[in-house]
Structure formats: structure tokens, C-alpha cells
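name: query_chain
kind: protein
chains: 1
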Amino acid sequence: MKSILIKPLVTEKMTGISEKLHRYGFIVDKEANKVQIKNEVEKLYSVTVSSVNTARYNGKSRSRQTKKGLVAGRTNSFKKAFVTLAKGETIDFFSNI
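structure:
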């Protein structure tokens, strides 16, 4: 059984949103729905989730110049989940370091 949560989004922008709105971002499995994401976050971090918003992102086209000429490709597509926690609850991603 593969995990629904792939990795948390720890960026400057998400840290600011987390401090103000108690909203945390995760990269999740593309086939996961909101109920599965909510249950996984509640189980892993022992918090109460009030809402989940999701967004799908297509891969970007990339090209680079090499000795053999122009090489074109795409980055992977992915899905983000923005999880809003109940008042007074937080997730500490750096507690295990």
C-alpha cells in the first residue's frame, strides 16, 4: 500500500500561510481524494482537519542545449493538497530532525 502524502510543502510562502491561517500544503498522490487526504493527515500528525482543498498541476515543457542538439522533455505532473486545521492546532515538520 503506497502512501497518500508524498511530501509536505515547506516554502517561505507556505510557512507564512501556515502561521496566519493554520493551512498546510502537501504534495499528494494524483488519485487521492479529499476524504483520504484528511484521514491520512489526521492519522499521521494527530490533528483535527477542518477542510481540504486540492489543485492539479500539469508538467511544464523543458528544453536544454546539449552536444547532440536540443533535448526537449516535460517535468512530472503532480497534485497539491491544502489542509486547514482546527483553531489552535499546528503541525511541526521539523520536530524529528
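note: The beta strands are 5-8, 23-28, 49-57, 61-66, 69-74, 78-85.
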